[in-house]
Structure formats: structure tokens, C-alpha cells
Amino acid sequence: MSDFLQLSGQSFLVLGVANRKSVAWFIAKSLEEQGARVLYSVRSEARKKSLATLLAGKPVFICDVEVEGACAKLAAEIAAGGFAPLQGVVHSVAFANYSEGFKPFHGTNRKDFLQATAISAFSLVELAEAVKPHLARNASVVTIGISSLTVTPDNYGYMGPIKAALESSSRFLAKSFSADSEVRFNVIGAGPLKTSASAGIPGYIESYLYAEKLTFRKRNLDTQEVANAALFLLSERSSGLNGSTLVIDAGLGLNFFDKDIIRLAMRPEQ
After folding, report:
1. What pTM did the predictor assign?
2. Is there a cis peptide before residue 153, judged by omega within 30 degrees of 0?
């Protein structure tokens, strides 16, 4: 079958494009390559202007998910523009304030934690509620998480628990929506990526290079590989997946006892 995913002609809302390196951009671009219509939602007017060339001629909305009521406004504008029903939504939104540099987890600032939670986790709940009337009955909602919620990287800090909240929220939304629809919610648990957002994490380069050594293939993910998985989850080909997390990490989470890593750790002089 030439059109295996059957996404052509369908409408999808994608939140989170910041630049050409964004996971959201790779997903949106891949959807368009499959013939889908993509609606873009960006954080601010300034961001919209910065993306004017990249998103020229495409429908672009503004939604700062930190602002209460912004998701409802976005949903109303989408409906008024005649873009509904939506066959899917991509939630690729996250923010953490690392401006003060590295802090131990117990030193997390209350304001920073609550802000990051509102933007990175609760926004999925608020968005889902807002767009629910405008979703196709069998629509698919995909959000971007991390490959493991049990590891405790020092430099990721309070975003670990917040990503856990995001993943749990996705499962609860899957259950909640099942009362009167077949809308699915799934998470992509992505391993380390080269994105502008990741570059803002203190010490990320070292973590990225270490993680690469732990993958089976000794090469970290390409962002396109995450986008490919997202398209599968957005399509009806993944209709049996709901409330799930699809881990995409090139084997990183299964290879802690790699012989080369052990050798370097025990005899670093080599």
C-alpha cells in the first residue's frame, strides 16, 4: 500500500515549533510531506515573527500555555477558521528556568517548579479540554516525554518529576476521554536529542555524549526518528495504542553495563 499511514488530507494541530531544530518542526514537516494539513501554534507574536520565513503561507496561531484561558482561545480560533475536526494534536511544549544554573533538587525554587509544571505538564490537560469538541472521534494526541522516568540526572533536576506528571496526565486523559470518544493519548519517551531547548540544560553536552556511548549503535537519536514515531502514533495504524509510552532511545536504557563504559569507568587512564 503506497499510503500506509493514510494521513493525507487530514488536519493536525502542532504546538511547540521554536526553530528548525525543534521536535515539533520535524513532526510538522513530516506530516506535510504525507499530505496532511498542519496548524501551527507558537508561544508569542515575537516567536511568530521569528518563524515568518519557515512558516510562510501556513496557518499559525498564538497560544502561550502559561496564560490561563489561552488554550480555550486557541480552540475557538481554530473552530472559527473552519479547521475542525482535527485528526490529531502534537503537544511538544516544555520550559524550565535554568537561568540560575545548577541547583541540587532539594534547592528547587517553588516559583520555577510551578511555572515549569504549568507549561510542561498541565498545559496538556488544559489543551485537551479546550480542543475536545473539535477533535475527530478517533483522533490521536501525542506528547513528548523522556525515555526514562526512573533515572535521576543531576542536571535535569526538577524537570524529571514534571515529565513524570506529563506522562501520568496523558494516561489519565486517555481514561477520561474514553467515556465518550475513541480519542487516544500517547507519549513518546525520547532519548537525548540535539535541540535548542536541550542546549539550555546545564552540562547537557557531556550528558549527551555519555548517553551516546550507551546506545547499542553508539549513535544518539536523530530528531527525525522521533518524528517518524510520532507520525505512527498520529495515524490509525497505531489504533491499539492508548495511554502508552513509546520509548525511542536506540537501546540507551538497556545498556548500562556496556563493556566499553565499564572499562572507561574502572580504568579511565585508558
Report:
1. 0.94
2. no
Query: Is 132 within the bounds of a domain?
Result: yes
Domain count, the chain: 1
Q: 74 near 50, Cβ under 8 Å?
A: no
State the pLDDT at residue 270. 54
pLDDT tens digits, residue range 210-259? 999 999 999 999 999 999 999 999 999 999 999 999 999 999 999 999 99
Sign of CA dihedral 13, 15, 18, 22: negative
Domain CATH number, residue 238:
3.40.50.720
The boundaries of the domain holding residue 212 are 11-266
Taken in order 263, 220, 144, 170, is the CA torsion positive or negative?
negative
Please check whether residue 3 lies inside any domain of the structure.
no
Helix (H) or strand (E) holding 140: strand 135-146
d(CA 3, CA 58): 23
pLDDT over 90 (residue 155): no
